[in-house]
């Protein structure tokens, strides 16, 4: 589950991470009210207006702007709220902005220069350990930094059995070139950030930039946070943080139906039971000259109603030119799946794309007979290669 910047910052603050303070506004008038409240609480007289969407690179699309007066806050917020923000991480249509964060200006003058760093906490799957990735090149795309100056990216692996050790936090501060109070502040920041990552069951905390202010404070100016969906049962207070408007509507609908669905860019819809078989089926589609239009795992209870629901989800994608159903009947009975295909075909009606069905396992022979005698334009297959050949033939 992805979070908005302001939500991620609330979690960070809860675990003792210093943040750039801000207030969410859903209209230009609310933005002015938020700015006045922020001025009373922090003394700031300049404000940063930030679009709240699940995408990076907001500044490049005009979604982050500095306002130097309340009038500018109202004008800029009015421009950003309701716009379709296009960034390198959105589609060509962009994402509609429903709210903005009015944040304090933290780039104030002082005795020393400000500095921006990059820092993220994530899982290193190859090593089976958490990892802190950081760089002196904050405020830039980390992918660009990795490509052009990889020597400026550092990593610190953390043994989950002992957690982040004090010497590791100090090493991070040292590698970032800090000293004095800024060094001490950074060690506290890193320690609290890692604690927030672990305690919230996150799969990603990305702070870009981490700011060293002119008075040597260390704070999170941005926050990109992803919470592990599998751990949500431990965090009922996070459930309401989900913003369905930011998610693919077809994926949201599929999730409500209990289907594991991921929308892709291909032309062959697939309906499979089991994640491993689904991945193999996607490979099969590629080998047949097609591109998978989705990942869809109907699970082990693929009855007629579930199959029909999956059909409707797949057919919402206008790019689908064929559908491949690949079911292994272990717990589930193939004849029930076949009946589900037949029922769905009749109930939905006017299905204009060819359907290839491969059923193997429990009652597979009965299932094939049902499909062959249904009188419907359904192509049945029993072997992987046979299914691949039929996918290729309908796409040719």
TrEMBL record:
<feature type="domain" description="ATP-grasp fold succinyl-CoA synthetase-type">
    <location>
        <begin position="2"/>
        <end position="210"/>
    </location>
</feature>
<keyword id="KW-0067">ATP-binding</keyword>
<dbReference type="GO" id="GO:0005524">
    <property type="term" value="F:ATP binding"/>
</dbReference>
<dbReference type="GO" id="GO:0006099">
    <property type="term" value="P:tricarboxylic acid cycle"/>
</dbReference>
<dbReference type="GO" id="GO:0004775">
    <property type="term" value="F:succinate-CoA ligase (ADP-forming) activity"/>
</dbReference>
<dbReference type="GO" id="GO:0042709">
    <property type="term" value="C:succinate-CoA ligase complex"/>
</dbReference>
<dbReference type="InterPro" id="IPR017866">
    <property type="entry name" value="Succ-CoA_synthase_bsu_CS"/>
</dbReference>
<feature type="binding site">
    <location>
        <position position="50"/>
    </location>
    <ligand>
        <name>ATP</name>
    </ligand>
</feature>
<comment type="function">
    <text>Succinyl-CoA synthetase functions in the citric acid cycle (TCA), coupling the hydrolysis of succinyl-CoA to the synthesis of either ATP or GTP and thus represents the only step of substrate-level phosphorylation in the TCA. The beta subunit provides nucleotide specificity of the enzyme and binds the substrate succinate, while the binding sites for coenzyme A and phosphate are found in the alpha subunit.</text>
</comment>
<dbReference type="InterPro" id="IPR016102">
    <property type="entry name" value="Succinyl-CoA_synth-like"/>
</dbReference>
<keyword id="KW-0479">Metal-binding</keyword>
<protein>
    <recommendedName>
        <fullName>Succinate--CoA ligase [ADP-forming] subunit beta</fullName>
        <ecNumber>6.2.1.5</ecNumber>
    </recommendedName>
</protein>
<keyword id="KW-0436">Ligase</keyword>
<keyword id="KW-0547">Nucleotide-binding</keyword>
<feature type="binding site">
    <location>
        <begin position="57"/>
        <end position="59"/>
    </location>
    <ligand>
        <name>ATP</name>
    </ligand>
</feature>
<comment type="pathway">
    <text>Carbohydrate metabolism; tricarboxylic acid cycle; succinate from succinyl-CoA (ligase route): step 1/1.</text>
</comment>
<feature type="binding site">
    <location>
        <position position="106"/>
    </location>
    <ligand>
        <name>ATP</name>
    </ligand>
</feature>
<dbReference type="GO" id="GO:0005829">
    <property type="term" value="C:cytosol"/>
</dbReference>
<feature type="binding site">
    <location>
        <position position="222"/>
    </location>
    <ligand>
        <name>Mg(2+)</name>
    </ligand>
</feature>
<feature type="binding site">
    <location>
        <position position="208"/>
    </location>
    <ligand>
        <name>Mg(2+)</name>
    </ligand>
</feature>
<comment type="similarity">
    <text>Belongs to the succinate/malate CoA ligase beta subunit family.</text>
</comment>
<dbReference type="InterPro" id="IPR005809">
    <property type="entry name" value="Succ_CoA_ligase-like_bsu"/>
</dbReference>
<feature type="binding site">
    <location>
        <position position="116"/>
    </location>
    <ligand>
        <name>ATP</name>
    </ligand>
</feature>
<dbReference type="InterPro" id="IPR013650">
    <property type="entry name" value="ATP-grasp_succ-CoA_synth-type"/>
</dbReference>
<dbReference type="InterPro" id="IPR005811">
    <property type="entry name" value="SUCC_ACL_C"/>
</dbReference>
<dbReference type="GO" id="GO:0006104">
    <property type="term" value="P:succinyl-CoA metabolic process"/>
</dbReference>
<keyword id="KW-0816">Tricarboxylic acid cycle</keyword>
<feature type="binding site">
    <location>
        <begin position="330"/>
        <end position="332"/>
    </location>
    <ligand>
        <name>substrate</name>
    </ligand>
</feature>
<dbReference type="Pfam" id="PF00549">
    <property type="entry name" value="Ligase_CoA"/>
</dbReference>
<dbReference type="GO" id="GO:0004776">
    <property type="term" value="F:succinate-CoA ligase (GDP-forming) activity"/>
</dbReference>
<comment type="subunit">
    <text>Heterotetramer of two alpha and two beta subunits.</text>
</comment>
<feature type="binding site">
    <location>
        <position position="273"/>
    </location>
    <ligand>
        <name>substrate</name>
    </ligand>
</feature>
<feature type="domain" description="ATP-citrate synthase/succinyl-CoA ligase C-terminal">
    <location>
        <begin position="271"/>
        <end position="391"/>
    </location>
</feature>
<dbReference type="Pfam" id="PF08442">
    <property type="entry name" value="ATP-grasp_2"/>
</dbReference>
<dbReference type="InterPro" id="IPR013815">
    <property type="entry name" value="ATP_grasp_subdomain_1"/>
</dbReference>
<dbReference type="GO" id="GO:0000287">
    <property type="term" value="F:magnesium ion binding"/>
</dbReference>
<keyword id="KW-0460">Magnesium</keyword>
């Amino acid at each position: 589950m992805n979070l908005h910047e302001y939500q991620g910052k609330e979690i960070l603050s809860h675990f003792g991470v210093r943040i750039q303070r801000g207030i969410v506004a859903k209209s230009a008038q609310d933005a002015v009210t938020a700015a006045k409240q922020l001025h009373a609480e922090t003394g700031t007289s300049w404000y940063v207006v930030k679009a709240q969407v699940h995408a990076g690179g907001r500044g490049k699309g005009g979604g982050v702007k500095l306002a130097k007066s309340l009038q500018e806050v109202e004008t800029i917020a009015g421009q950003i709220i309701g716009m379709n923000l296009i960034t390198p991480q959105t589609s060509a249509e962009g994402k509609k902005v429903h709210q903005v964060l009015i944040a304090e200006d933290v780039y104030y003058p002082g005795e020393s220069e400000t500095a921006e760093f990059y820092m993220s906490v994530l899982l290193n799957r190859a090593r089976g350990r958490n990892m802190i990735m950081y760089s002196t090149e904050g405020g830039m795309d980390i992918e660009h930094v990795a490509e052009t100056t990889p020597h400026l990216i550092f990593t610190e692996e953390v043994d989950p059995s002992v957690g982040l050790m004090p010497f590791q936090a100090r090493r991070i501060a040292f590698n970032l070139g800090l000293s004095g109070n800024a060094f001490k502040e950074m060690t506290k920041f890193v320690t609290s950030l890692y604690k927030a990552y672990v305690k919230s069951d996150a799969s990603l905390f990305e702070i870009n930039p981490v700011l060293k202010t002119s008075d040597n404070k260390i704070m999170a100016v941005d926050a990109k946070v992803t919470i592990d969906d599998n751990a949500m049962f431990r965090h009922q207070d996070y459930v309401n943080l989900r913003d369905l408007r930011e998610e693919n509507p077809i994926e949201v609908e599929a999730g409500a139906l209990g289907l594991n669905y991921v929308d892709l860019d291909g032309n062959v819809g697939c309906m499979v039971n089991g994640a491993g078989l689904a991945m193999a089926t996607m490979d099969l589609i590629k080998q047949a000259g097609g591109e998978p239009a989705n990942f869809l795992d109907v699970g082990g209870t693929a009855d007629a109603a579930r199959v029909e629901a999956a059909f409707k989800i797949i057919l919402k994608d206008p790019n689908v030119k064929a559908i491949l159903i690949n079911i292994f009947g272990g717990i589930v009975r193939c004849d029930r799946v076949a009946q589900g295909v037949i029922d769905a075909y009749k109930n939905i009606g006017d299905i204009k794309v060819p359907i290839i069905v491969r059923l193997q396992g429990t009652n597979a022979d009965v299932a094939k007979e049902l499909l062959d005698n249904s009188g419907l334009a359904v192509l049945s297959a029993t072997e992987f290669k046979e299914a691949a050949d039929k996918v290729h033939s309908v796409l040719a």
